[in-house]
């Protein structure tokens, strides 16, 4: 099951939740029509408690779960809020702690419009790219000066954090998520049924932290997405090549031609960049960080970290935290 949690909170825009829900269920239906064995989607609504949520439209939504009981998610959607988001964020402070925990567990988190403020308030967007609704740009910049606001982009991605400026941008982002789950044909099917216009691709309207290199090799793009989604698991690259119907030699050659890196280098980069962020923002031990990013051998993790960054994980944590606190 793809476990997907939709956060509900007061004064939310209902369409920022119901639209991606409908798109995801349409994708599941289309995928099942072709293969009855594909992973299904479990949609769970969650709030700080299980009291009914009054939406901006005036009708109530009843959350299925509170923060302690919701099934462990693979993906989280945070809705947009109407007008000033700060009172709602203060009222839902427990949600910030929960979001930090989910981020540490490698969960993909998406926020739309002023819902991005939840990620910023939790400190998850510090020194990362983000976007929000155009009307709130200036206030967002004042409230969260450590966030790299990308005003010219409708979507911003920083690792497993995604920000969409509007509900329309969220629709484009949801198509991207569907492609990751079920492949390009299913994502195009959903896009055609939910939009009458030809939309620009996710890649052309988005900002990616880390200088992601774009290329036309669709199968290698799918392999990159798979590695991004599964870096925390034990991965044999020979099995990844087999998964995409290539020999190891062909996979390595095409991957290097498309990205400028070998598959192993690409996987190591994802893992080490994620580890750097966890060392900076979490209180996980070094061994816990190593395990979260897919390394069960502490010596190997420390050696690779030092090889790539010329410092050990513990020295890196000490340095970045000293800078962080000296800036406060």
Automatic annotation (TrEMBL):
<dbReference type="Pfam" id="PF12833">
    <property type="entry name" value="HTH_18"/>
</dbReference>
<dbReference type="InterPro" id="IPR018062">
    <property type="entry name" value="HTH_AraC-typ_CS"/>
</dbReference>
<dbReference type="InterPro" id="IPR018060">
    <property type="entry name" value="HTH_AraC"/>
</dbReference>
<protein>
    <submittedName>
        <fullName>Transcriptional regulator GlxA family with amidase domain</fullName>
    </submittedName>
</protein>
<dbReference type="InterPro" id="IPR009057">
    <property type="entry name" value="Homeodomain-like_sf"/>
</dbReference>
<keyword id="KW-0805">Transcription regulation</keyword>
<feature type="domain" description="HTH araC/xylS-type">
    <location>
        <begin position="221"/>
        <end position="319"/>
    </location>
</feature>
<keyword id="KW-0238">DNA-binding</keyword>
<keyword id="KW-0804">Transcription</keyword>
<dbReference type="Pfam" id="PF01965">
    <property type="entry name" value="DJ-1_PfpI"/>
</dbReference>
<dbReference type="InterPro" id="IPR052158">
    <property type="entry name" value="INH-QAR"/>
</dbReference>
<dbReference type="GO" id="GO:0003700">
    <property type="term" value="F:DNA-binding transcription factor activity"/>
</dbReference>
<dbReference type="InterPro" id="IPR020449">
    <property type="entry name" value="Tscrpt_reg_AraC-type_HTH"/>
</dbReference>
<dbReference type="GO" id="GO:0043565">
    <property type="term" value="F:sequence-specific DNA binding"/>
</dbReference>
<dbReference type="InterPro" id="IPR002818">
    <property type="entry name" value="DJ-1/PfpI"/>
</dbReference>
<dbReference type="InterPro" id="IPR029062">
    <property type="entry name" value="Class_I_gatase-like"/>
</dbReference>
């Amino acid at each position: 099951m793809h476990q997907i949690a939709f956060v509900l909170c007061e004064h939310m825009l209902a369409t920022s939740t119901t639209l991606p829900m409908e798109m995801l269920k349409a994708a599941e239906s289309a995928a099942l029509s072709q293969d009855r064995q594909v992973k299904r989607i479990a949609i769970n609504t969650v709030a700080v408690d299980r009291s009914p949520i009054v939406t901006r439209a005036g009708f109530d939504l009843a959350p299925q779960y509170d923060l302690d009981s919701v099934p462990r998610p693979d993906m989280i959607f945070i809705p947009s809020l109407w007008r000033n988001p700060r009172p709602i964020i203060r009222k839902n402070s427990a949600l910030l702690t929960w979001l930090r925990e989910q981020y540490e567990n490698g969960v993909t988190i998406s926020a739309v419009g002023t819902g991005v403020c939840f990620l910023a308030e939790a400190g998850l967007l510090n020194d990362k790219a983000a976007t929000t609704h155009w009307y709130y740009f200036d206030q967002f910049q004042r409230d969260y000066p450590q966030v790299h606001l990308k005003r010219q982009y409708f979507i911003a991605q920083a690792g497993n954090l995604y920000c969409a400026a509007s509900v329309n941008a969220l629709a484009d982002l949801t198509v991207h998520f569907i492609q990751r789950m079920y492949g390009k044909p299913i994502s195009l099917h959903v896009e055609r049924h939910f939009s009458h216009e030809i939309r620009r691709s996710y890649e052309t309207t988005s900002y990616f932290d880390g200088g992601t290199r774009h290329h036309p090799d669709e199968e290698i793009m799918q392999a990159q997405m798979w590695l991004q989604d599964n870096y925390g698991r034990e991965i044999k690259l020979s099995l990844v090549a087999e998964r995409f119907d290539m020999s190891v030699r062909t996979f390595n050659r095409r991957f290097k031609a498309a990205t400028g890196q070998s598959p192993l280098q690409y996987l190591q980069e994802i893992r080490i960049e994620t580890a750097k962020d966890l060392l900076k923002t979490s209180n996980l031990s070094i061994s816990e960080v190593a395990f979260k990013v897919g390394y069960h051998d502490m010596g190997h993790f420390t050696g690779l970290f030092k090889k790539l960054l010329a410092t050990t994980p513990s020295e890196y944590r000490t340095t970045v935290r000293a800078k962080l606190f000296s800036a406060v």
